[in-house]
Amino acid sequence: MNDVAxxxxxxxxxxxxxxxxxxxxxxxxxxxxxxxxxxxxYRPNEVARALRERHSRQIGILVPNLLDPFFAICAHTISxxxxxxxxxxxxxxxxxxxxxxxxxxxxMLRRQVEGLIVIPADEGPSRITPAEFRNLPVVTLDRPxxxxxxxxxxxxxxxxxxxxxxxLIEHGHKRIAFFGLSRTMHTIKLRxxxxxxxxxxxxxxxxxxxxxxxQEEMLTAIQSIFAGKTPPTAIFCSNNLIARNAFxxxxxxxxxxxxxxxxxxxxDFETANILNPALTVVRQPITEMARIGxxxxxxxxxxxxxxxxxxxxVLPVELVVRDSCGTHP
Amino acid sequence: MNDVAxxxxxxxxxxxxxxxxxxxxxxxxxxxxxxxxxxxxYRPNEVARALRERHSRQIGILVPNLLDPFFAICAHTISxxxxxxxxxxxxxxxxxxxxxxxxxxxxMLRRQVEGLIVIPADEGPSRITPAEFRNLPVVTLDRPxxxxxxxxxxxxxxxxxxxxxxxLIEHGHKRIAFFGLSRTMHTIKLRxxxxxxxxxxxxxxxxxxxxxxxQEEMLTAIQSIFAGKTPPTAIFCSNNLIARNAFxxxxxxxxxxxxxxxxxxxxDFETANILNPALTVVRQPITEMARIGxxxxxxxxxxxxxxxxxxxxVLPVELVVRDSCGTHP
DNA sequence: CTGTTAGCGCCTTCAG
DNA sequence: CTGAAGGCGCTAACAG
Lengths: 329, 329
Hints:
Two copies of one chain form a homodimer. Chain A contains eleven helices and twelve strands.
């Protein structure tokens, strides 16, 4: 910047002003400065600026990983939204580990991020709390941080499950199994509740299976379940991984969908409609969720006050009927 | 930091030294400092440190988007590798637009990233060049930046296509169509070359279709192609999007795979093996590519010299035979 | 082993 | 409209 100033024959402040446009500078001077900038290929140092201005124009995104399309879509959308606001994003993954989550959040704070958008680790108590991160605006997505006062954006997990299960019930199914991933995951628990209520309301008995996060485990589970005398005639899958694994195992075992078992998944995915049969799912508005979360954060940044109320925004889900439950009753 | 120093009754330098561990500090003093840090919940300001030390411990990742699992896997792997090196990552997307690519790279440079890993925009000449970004270490993934001296990591695109097409030829197919996405994409061009050579080598005529990036377009294309008198008996799909769209259209039209048409895709994806029939693909080592690229960048950072030679690392691909071509001949 | 001085690149404040 | 001084939080270099 000094070089630019010297070349343009002005003081550094003039250069600074030309760049920020905050104060009027005579046109001619501005032109000289611009020429000098171009000649020297000068780029302002945002680090110095951040230090001086005490805000980094940077937010942090903390997700379990970027391999699950659900998280990747969130990260993508947040990143784009941040860009529209002139912010950069730092991304880190916590692999569903609360310690890693805390470590990464701390690192981001040291980097002076102005806010955090996090899809919390689901195992163990999160250590992202106002006690640790005083003043730092945080918005959580997909699930809240238990007992924290942060704004959060989630979907109608329970209602969505009811929607899906009722769809199955309307098709006349009596034995409908719930396939969970982990008993401890917030979203899965809510979806199970929805399942249970729908079943109870219809006077049906519940039947839940957990785990089966890999194709192999699922195959074993399906084999044992369908070796019984009265296997379920329908399965409600609690997330897209479980749905894919179930679909795979059923196809592999040549168990007919929907003739022998009907299938409904929670969370739509790219290839759901090219499966054979195409999978009926409860769709979550992922992009919208991420955008709303980011917008929430930026409005906190603008108003310069961290939300202390912890507003929860619940987004609607939608049943996408395809072919894995047969035709409409 | 001043507060910490005061509370511990030492100078700021002592605090600094305790934190960095660079110089020995007496144990007792160190303890007092640590206590003060804990009491005040002090976190060092990385922005100030970066300004002073003139390196940010931050790299930039620039990808077209995070929606395509291929890019998301790359970003994920780079992010994890960077973390292992104690670096943070800034991520931005360029939506395959060379201007946006340039803008985002510039923004990252202003933020003093120490290096860039980029999956270049494929349309238009990239403006990420040493002329614009003097000294900045850059590694490109998936495709090179034309005429740039940057290290790059790619896969055997041409050979992979030959592998896939030969597999089809071995199954006795004579009319094998190539489904491209864009004529201008570097990877697609190479894959087309592989296709062409394999066909020529077998004395077969080529037949290529481009576009069809949406399910609707693909459906129209497939309808018109299969309305002809001698439609192809096999299709080689140049990437995972095209493969999925083709699969969808074929299923929708109830054209039997592999009986009526055999299908091979380039680039494996999550659900490829739960399709019915499971899709035979040429698999690229995505994670390995990203990890090698990141490692390359970090070794440049360590050696403090930007690669000027532009080393190209070519990674092997692998044919994953599943069911979309029928049984082995 | 510890403290002092100076300055990284920028912008706020105050003078001109 | 423009420039000079000072300091954001930190650490390299030097001194003690």
